Amino acid sequence: MALRMLAPGREQAALARLAELMTPRGWDTTLEIVPGSAAPVTDLTSQLFAALALAGVDEIAGLPVAWLRQRCLDAILASGVPARLRPGFWDNDGRCCGTAGVGDVLLDAAQDCAGQVRADRLLQAARTMADALAERVIRDPAGARWRFTEHRRDPPLLPPGTSWMQGAAGIAAFLLRLARVLDDGLTAPVVDRPDQWWAVPARIRTIHAGPRVLPDPA
Description:
About 40% of the residues lie in helices and about 5% in strands. By secondary structure, it is mostly helical. It has two domains: about 1-80 and about 195-218, no CATH class; about 90-185, no CATH class. It has a two-stranded antiparallel sheet.
């Protein structure tokens, strides 16, 4: 939807730039562009406006992409997550579409924020996500795990997972990153993640370093 609001003729150019941006060099990642679609067909859906900014898009429908990103973050802060307010909200603690993913997005924004007051607010919100994960972890002699719920299933409690997007791997990565930021500050280096490495300044990336990752368009 956001790309469709670009000026005529710019949508496909922005899509091509995003495709190159989201396919890191040396990684075996298949990315497909569908003509007329709003975004590349991929599960890398977070941080659209940060990706657009790095791809060279300054504004959409006259609105700066940086401002649009901030509006998205404001919506997260006002949404009530991670409180479980009703069936279906908030049942997932994973990286894909749950508490850990929200926390990582907030950390991205905090480490990419010029204003200290705003950065502190975003960091505190990330800590709130981590506190919820600490409260919901299941511990026993076998270890620690998280179980999500799906209110449309009977029984609604899902088995624990270990994957990056829907399991302990993604949750642990967020918690370790937050601990590093709390210890070392907002300039702590960020281990590159395949799904949103572009969302933090180049100076704190561990692999995709440099002032620009992509060459300027011809």
